Amino acid sequence: MAEDLATKPVKQPGETNTQFNERLTQWYKDQPEPTLSDAQKKAGAYVKFVRTGKAGEGEYKILYPIGAKFDPISGEPTDSNSGNAADGSGMGNAGGFIGNNPRGAAAEAAAILADKKVRGQSAFDFLKLQLTGLGIGDLVSPLEELIKEGISSDEMTLRLMNDPKYNKAYKARFAANDARIAAGLRALSPAEYIDLEDQYQNIMRNYGLPASYYTKDSTGKQVGFEKFIAGDVSAAELEDRIMTAQKRVINSNPEVAAALKQFYPDITNGDILAYTLDPTQGLEAIKRKVTAAEIGGAAMAQGLATGVSRAEELARYGVTKEQAQQGFETVAQVAPRGGQLAAIYGQDPYTQATAESEVFSLAGSAEAKRKREKLSALETSAFSGQSGLTQGALSRDRAGAF
Questions:
Q1: With contact defined as beta carbons under 8 Å apart, do 112 and 103 qualify?
Q2: Which single residue of 56, 135, 278, 345 could bond 24 by disulfide (Cβ 3.0 to 4.6 Å)?
Q3: CA–CA separation, 294 and 136 (whole Å)
């Protein structure tokens, strides 16, 4: 909707300073332009909109080219050194025009430049104050040459972020934003970016990670954080990753770490923490591997061997670390005796896998139970005593529903 030219606009609720300044400037530009006299036209005068104050203020001025001559009495432009006005009348009214004499034009131009510099310095100082509060005040240094242009702090911010002439230091400081944009994510503002870095640092410090993981350089940047920010890793996810590595592997019984490295050789040099902190490794995939390693570690602790396929199968069945510890203790007791009895009585082999099927309720658990009960009955019948494969033996310290 067109502005009322008789009423100066005021800032509206929700309107940014930049939007208001643009609207106000347009209101000034929509005002009637002054009309040039014939003498002024002959002298090369022209009308130009000139900013005269802050917040978009300005007005139309009549300007003259360098070298224009003026009548010393009337102030009218002349076409020669004769003192006659350019229209030949020697009369005229130049009141209110910029440059109605050379000294006035120079003074007006100097005033405009001085005003631009004041506004530019104010915008520069405001932006530097904002960024200094974030610890990155030095990033505005390349913008000092823009002070003379009198642009707003909003415009300076845009130049700092997007103009290749000024944004080198800014882009280096917030390097992960380019990777975020390439991945279809939005760029973070400096405040959001730095806040996320601070959260990362606090979490790592609280969990006792080596300082090399979170110490920042002189610009406040930690290069290691860039991959987290680029990968859109939240502070909560980072903490979950660290807890998975520390509590479930590093600070657990050594068999878990041994099983993890045995099952997944891509976790090199035992650097489990670095592996879990790698954003290219999905958190859920990491947890599945750790669960499988916990199951494998429980088997190792009982002197049993198990492979990655079996451990992952048990994990898919929902077997936890605690259940695996209890279950493999039972398997270690039952499987050797079952194997011996199967050989003695000529029955189908009773193996570790057979015992695991019944203990952990895997596929074939019913058949495994029948084998055990048959062997138990044969032993009891032969010696008229209690078998080592009784339900009571299985029930003692086993996992899950047992």
A1: no
A2: 56
A3: 45
Query: How far, in Å, CA of 305 to CA of 331, rounded?
Result: 11
How far apart are the C-alpha atoms of 379 and 341, rounded to whole Å? 7
81 vs 228: CA distance, rounded Å:
75
Provide the pLDDT confidence category of residue 219 given band limits of 50, 70 and 90: confident
Structure tokens at 125: 């100082």
The conformation of residue 152, written as its DSSP 8-state character, comes to -
Beta carbons within 10 angstroms of residue 15's beta carbon: 14
pLDDT tens digits for range 376-402: 898 888 776 555 555 554 543 433 322
CB 257 within 8 A of CB 248: no
The residue among 43 and 183 whose pLDDT is bigger is 183
The string of pLDDT tens digits covering residues 329-374 is 999 999 999 999 989 989 999 999 999 999 999 998 899 999 999 9
Q: Tokens 């019944």, residue?
A: 358
Q: What residue segments make up the domains of the chain, in order of their start? A: 118-173, 176-232, 276-395
d(CA 346, CA 239): 55
Over residues 51-97, the pLDDT tens digits come to: 766 666 778 888 777 666 655 545 566 664 443 333 333 333 333 34
Helix ranges (H only) for 133-189 are 153-162, 168-173, 176-182
Neighbours of 395 (CB within 10 A): 10
Exposed, middle or buried, 225 (CB in 10 Å: 0-12/13-18/19+)? buried
